[in-house]
Each structure stands twice: as structure tokens, then as C-alpha cells.
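Fill in residues.
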């Protein structure tokens, strides 16, 4: 496709581009475990220092900000999850785990899931197929070595996928991906018109704390949304999912949500969900397994 003359792209070419990765059959189960009204899948992208390093930088101050995520953010998040007896998924770049393997223990000991999130939070879309495959495997091996469990879920760093990412996720045997946005509910991923058997647990920037609350000096991004407004958006996303009997999936970052003025958002969101009725709190892996086993077209 010529970016200066996109209108000249032949139909065969634009169809092929669109079909590289596409939503396949919807995976919206008729019921959730225990007769729950809806499912809640909370996730934390534990990028820490690799948020900076993945962009090819190592500014001392910015690395300390990442370090806060591990030292302060994660314990605060774990305390809230423990108090509500809720399990969640932590997508962790391999290098972020290797920097301090002992810091992974409290997460896995509490029964939370660890998912693949790049080697060093590198931009996946810039990788050639062989490099991407090698890094995905290496990240899986490193996380397995650190945590004792083989990850079954994948989330592309920055949600920046290469044309090969989903094919590789299928080829390497992951049960699910969580980087795509074609629905609020789970669906099966298709690559080039072929069903992959991989479940997508979709994300969205609207359900991502960093979109509203991240501070960056360069490129200059400022948090313009108040914590109260962020809570209101997340709560409305949950309420509608509850009313529809669907899935509420949320992305947070320990170095974004883990501050004294913000951690209450997580606390009150869980309290609000529990107050509304029967809700199934589950890891992404549990949600993916359930929707696949209860896919609507099964007899
Ligand atoms: Zn990330």
C-alpha cells in the first residue's frame, strides 16, 4: 500500500491486509460459572523498568519510576486483591521478571496468573518473524523458570502487533491472546481467513488506566482525567457488562494505578462489582478456558 496514494490500492491487496488478523466466531457463553451474572477479568501490565527500556532508553529517573511499580505498586495492588479475595492476571515482560525474580513470588503465591508481555517490552511490530518467534519462546522460558508455571496467555507490548504475532501465538500453543480490540466479548482469532483455535480476551484503551493517568515528559502526555472520572468510566463499563451478562476486562499498570491517590479506584471498583450481584472474578486464562469450552456452537 502506497501511503501517499492509498486510493490506488487494489481490492485484492486491501482485502488481504484486512484479513491478516480478523475476529472469527463470537465466544460469548450462555452462562458463567456458578450462575454468575457476568465475568470480571482484571489485568496488570507489570512493565516496570522495561516500559522505558523497550523504547530504547534508560533515563535514570524514568527507571526509578518503573522501580516504584515493583516496589510499591505491586504490593498495593496485591493487598487490595487479597482483601477482596480476587485473582487477576499479571502480564510481565521477561526482563521485568528477571530484574528481581524474588518479587514475582508474592504474585504467584497468591494464585495470580503470569502472562507473556514481550522480552523487554519491545515494539513487536518492528520484529521480523524469526526474531519475534525466538523472543516469544525465550520470554515464555524465562517466566516459566522464574515462576514455575508455563504461561498460557500472550499480550503484545503496547498492543503493537506484527503481521505474524497471532500466527506465532497459535503456533507456539498459547490458549489465548489479549491485545486485540474487535469486540467487548471474547472471540476466536482468524489469520488469513483460517480459524486459529486461539481465544482473544479483548482489551481497549477505554479500559486502560494509562490512557487517562500516565505522565510522560517526552512525548509530552499529561493526565487530564481525574481519578474520579476514571472510576466513573470503568464503573460504567462494568455496569453495562453486568446488565448484558458479558465480560468486563480491565488493564491497569502498577506504576500507574499504584499511587496513594489512585489505588482506591481498584478497591471501589471490586466493591461495586460485588455489591451488584453474582460476579465471577477470574484470571484471563480461566475466562479463555471457560469461553472456549462453552462456545455457543458446541452441541
Ligand atoms: Zn506493557
Amino acid at each position: 500500500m502506497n501511503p501517499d496514494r492509498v486510493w490506488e490500492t487494489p481490492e485484492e491487496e486491501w482485502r488481504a491486509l484486512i484479513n491478516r488478523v480478523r475476529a472469527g466466531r463470537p465466544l460469548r457463553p450462555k452462562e458463567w460459572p456458578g450462575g454468575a451474572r457476568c465475568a470480571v477479568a482484571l489485568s496488570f501490565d507489570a512493565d516496570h523498568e522495561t516500559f522505558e527500556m523497550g523504547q530504547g532508553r534508560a533515563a535514570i529517573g524514568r527507571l526509578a519510576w518503573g522501580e516504584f511499580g515493583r516496589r510499591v505498586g505491586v504490593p498495593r495492588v496485591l493487598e487490595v486483591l487479597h482483601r477482596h479475595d480476587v485473582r487477576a492476571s499479571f502480564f510481565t515482560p521477561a526482563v521485568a521478571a528477571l530484574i528481581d525474580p524474588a518479587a514475582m513470588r508474592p504474585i504467584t503465591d497468591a494464585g495470580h496468573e503470569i502472562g507473556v508481555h514481550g522480552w523487554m517490552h519491545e515494539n513487536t511490530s518492528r520484529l521480523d518473524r524469526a526474531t519475534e518467534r525466538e523472543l516469544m519462546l525465550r520470554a515464555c522460558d524465562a517466566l516459566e523458570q522464574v515462576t514455575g508455571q508455563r504461561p498460557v496467555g500472550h499480550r503484545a507490548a503496547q498492543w503493537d502487533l506484527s503481521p505474524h504475532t497471532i500466527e506465532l501465538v497459535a503456533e507456539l500453543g498459547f490458549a489465548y491472546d489479549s491485545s486485540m480490540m474487535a469486540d467487548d466479548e471474547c472471540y476466536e482469532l482468524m489469520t488469513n481467513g483460517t480459524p486459529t483455535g486461539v481465544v482473544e480476551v479483548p482489551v481497549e484503551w477505554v479500559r486502560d488506566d494509562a490512557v487517562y493517568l500516565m505522565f510522560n515528559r517526552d512525548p509530552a502526555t499529561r493526565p487530564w482525567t481525574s481519578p474520579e472520572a476514571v472510576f466513573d468510566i470503568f464503573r460504567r463499563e462494568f455496569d453495562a457488562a453486568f446488565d448484558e451478562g458479558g465480560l468486563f476486562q480491565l488493564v491497569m499498570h502498577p506504576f500507574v494505578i499504584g499511587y496513594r491517590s489512585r489505588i482506591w479506584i481498584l478497591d471501589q471498583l471490586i466493591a461495586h462489582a460485588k455489591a451488584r450481584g453474582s460476579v465471577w472474578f477470574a484470571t484471563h486464562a480461566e475466562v479463555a478456558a471457560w469461553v472456549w469450552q462453552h462456545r455457543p456452537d458446541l452441541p
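The beta strands are 21-26, 38-45, 89-92, 113-116, 153-154, 176-177, 187-191, 194-200, 247-252, 279-281.
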